[in-house]
Design goal:
single chain, mainly alpha, Growth Hormone, Chain: A, 24 helices, 8 strands
Amino acid sequence: MDLFRRWAAGSSSAQGPTDRGTYELVGQPVIGSSRRIVASDALKDTVPESEDFDGNAVGNAVGDGPTKEELRTLRKVADRLPWAAFLVAIVELCERFTYYGISGPFQNYISNSYHDPSGLPGAIGLDQKGATALTNFFQFWCYVTPILGAVIADSFLGKYRTIYYFSIIYAAGVLILFLTSLPIAIENGYALGGLVVAMIVIGLGTGGIKSNVSPMIAEQCITTQQFVRTTSRGERVIVDPALTIQRIYMVFYMCINIGSLSSILTTNMELHIGFWSAYLLCFFTFLAGFATLIMGKEKYIMHPPEGSVIPRALRVCWIGLKNRSLNAAKDQYLRTTPGSQVSTPWDDVFVEEVRRALSACKVFLFFPVYWLVQGQMVNNLVSQAGQMQLHGIPNDVMSNIDPLTIIIFIPLCDRFLYPALRKAGIAFKPITRMFAGFVFAAAAMAYAAFVQRAIYNAGPCYTAPLACDAGKLPGGRYLPNEVHVAAQVPAFLFIGLSEIFAAVTGLEYAFTQAPASMKSFIMSMFLLTTAIGALMGGIISPLAVDPTLLWMYIGLVVVALVGGVFFWRTFKHLNDFEDL
């Protein structure tokens, strides 16, 4: 645990000033300046010595702004993460524990009937195609609602209060799911209705949380400009806010995946106790995260809402669309064009912020293809595992290899891979990292196709797994095909690596490229790509039947590769504007 804390904390910085609202870092923003960057009085008294990567003490946050020569020769490091960021990460960990804890058993809960002949746990009995469609609807809904949460936060309540109120809604949804998953409720036919209501309520709750918790954690980082620091070993380094944001989102995403390991517990609980026990555990875990949110209120940096920023941004976009240029929304154009609106509730700076926001959103256009592929691990790959020899392992536990991969490889990438690439002069910039994510996603589907072919080539049921007379046992149960479930492992490994490069970098890009007044909204646009991917998954769900599954996976390989190549060719020039 101490090793994780040291890695996550990183190199050096303040843990947090007494008066966090008065923090200010003053310096020359122009690269090449040698002007000294200083901290405000509120920070000077509260910046302790901290640790670099090797555990050696370093100085405080007061240092020199880098010159051109220093930028060329000195090593760049991330700043230390403040404790407020860790509190936000714990809130997200508990929310993701709940989300994945309840959704992990969904495929079995929906597709298999109560006391199913296959021997797999179940409740509703809608078969694989119906379960895949319903889980895709849930994922779609959960990633559409962040738009509502973002508008409420940016325009009315602010991030903290939006997360607070939507957490109450979320908890109510989990409680509904628990009550309708009790054996007496399943036997009386309440499971399907309760599930649909719970999905709608939980999706609404998670929407208000997801679009705000991501930018809120990054806003806890108070250093905004590069400065030079000398470590206790005598090495002069550049503390780079861009690397700090990169590290924050790697820590954030790792916490998400620690939380997602909950499905290991809940899938075993569904098998050995019942679905109700899994959902009850998730309910109490979510309450623990809600309590953490409340207890940390005084430590958070909280920015007030900007008023009607989203309606104003939409009006700017509308004027730009009508005139084929956003410049038409600027003051000079409006004043000199006959018939134009003279008085507007924005200035030219706001128009440029909208332009910047739109540029960030363009990068997300290809991400639905990525999420379509990544989403296979929570539905079709779960069902694929059910066709294989499980040897006592729940079929829906295999998807946890994905978060385990992420938890292991995120520190390795941050500590070894990325610094080694920077030292070698290899520019592994955001667009390149996201493209690598597409490639790994395609590799995952190629391997899944290989496994599906192996299943179809194995007895006793070959291309009709769990549905042939040769595999039928007394009591109505069926033997799976003779392929060990461990054969699935590389598919989840590739998906995990793809998330490190595509999903983590996408979160980072959404925050860094968004103007301050629209960070929640731009984050919701990135999350919306997940909803579109889930919608696409629902459209192709009729292909999720034997024996067409093999061709579905092959098609996904082609889609991921083509989408990745178009993404790279369209946006590779944006790497030129990045320092990393």
